[in-house]
Specification:
This protein has about 120 residues and is an all-alpha fold. The protein is built from 2 helices and no strands.
Length: about 120
């Protein structure tokens, strides 16, 4: 009897372990299955193997050219900014110099008028 009772206990324990394993495996399959269905994209970009020796070189050179294009675009944008700021400063300086020229012309005219009036007054006497 005790042997039969021990066998039933062992079978009950194994059945419990099996049922527990089944439940845990089913839950993990649902979790990982849902995760992989949500993300259809692969974790790593798949790049096909080159068919000849020059395929990989061409891909590398295209990436290098694209990087150079980006660097040139950034440099052009920076140079355009520097040029536009210098143009603004130059226009301001041109305006200031034009005002100075007009002021000097006015002073010359006043000086000429003063000379004419002093010559006229000295000739009258």
């Amino acid at each position: 009897m005790t042997l039969l009772a021990n066998i039933n206990a062992v079978w009950m324990f194994l059945a419990g372990v099996g049922l527990l394993s089944f439940i845990l495996l089913k839950r993990s399959y649902r979790y990982f299955g849902r995760r992989s269905r949500k993300r259809n994209e692969p974790a790593i970009e798949r790049i096909p193997r080159p068919t000849n020796a020059w395929d990989g070189v061409q891909r590398d050179s295209m990436a290098h050219i694209e990087r150079q294009k980006v660097e040139m675009f950034d440099m052009a944008r920076e140079l355009n900014g520097q040029l536009s700021s210098r143009i603004v400063i130059l226009e301001k300086l041109i305006g200031d110099s034009q005002r100075q020229i007009e002021r000097m012309e006015q002073l010359l005219e006043q000086m000429d008028d003063a000379q004419v009036t002093t010559e006229a007054s000295s000739s009258i006497e």
